[in-house]
Amino acid sequence: LSGLDPAQPYFQGTPVGVRLDKSDAEFVDVIHTDSAPTIPYLGFGMSIAIGHLDFYPNGGEQMPGCGKNPVSQIVDIDGIWEGTRDFVACNHLRSYKYYSDSIMHPDGFLGYACASYDVFETENCFPCPHEGCPNMGHFADKFKGKIKNNFVKLYLNTGEAKDFALWRYKVTVTLSGNSKVKGYVNLALYGSGGNTRQHQIFKGTLQPDNIYTSFIDAEVNIGTVTKVKFLWNNNWLNPTFPKLGAATITVQSGENG
After folding, report:
1. Which residues partner with 170 through β-bridges?
2. What CATH code is assigned to 1-165?
3. What's the CA gap between 108 and 102, in Å, rounded?
4. pLDDT in tens, 224-235
5. Under a CB-based contact definition with an 8 Å cutoff, are residues 53 and 154 in contact?
6. Exposure string (b/e) for 186-209, b if CB count within 10 Å is 16 or more?
7. Domain residue spans in the chain?
8. How far is CA 228 from CA 124, 136, 224, in A?
9. Where's the PLAT domain (predicted)?
10. CA 115 to CA 113: how far, in whole Å?
């Protein structure tokens, strides 16, 4: 039984006989996409964990792509009716869009077990444990026999628009060079499964011999890494023409470590 952003008003905090609960089926998975408080944020979805697996994409409150201005949101690529519905309840309706997208991406939407979304953004919940991570959506039941805890909260990020699936990688870069400089570092990942766009992994003071670690939520499952493209740039024109490079770059897949 899959709960697609179960309703919060009149249901949250009620007895299990009234609302969706893990006792309702052998396996209950839930996608929370609009779990901000109803007052004052007009959140339509429930925030509490109620299933065997509870997924909180992007933290479960505000979905990427739902903050567009009203005109661009209503004049949607899928039509005026779809755009109007999104304008009224964009976060709430993301749940079924993620679910339908998950059918097309059986290896995507991996949820990382974590105490909170803030902790998910650190290295504490990465990579997946040896038993793997469950997939949010249609293939969540593949994880049915591996659940150990009473409630499992899972976090992940999604794209702003279809295709929503992203694949998480941790990248670690050791800089080389002769002098520090203010600027930014971008990386693009190339692999047997495809290539990513450039992702900014750091902005600020670039110090040679320093190690910089960041996460890339890639728009493609790159498979086996074949190449990493490293680019850096100054924030402003520097007459000394500083040179920087990457002494080492490590890429770690969230799926298998």
Report:
1. 215, 252
2. 3.40.50.1820
3. 7
4. 999 999 999 986
5. yes
6. bbbbebeeeebeebebbeeebebe
7. 1-165, 168-253
8. 25, 28, 11
9. 167-257
10. 7
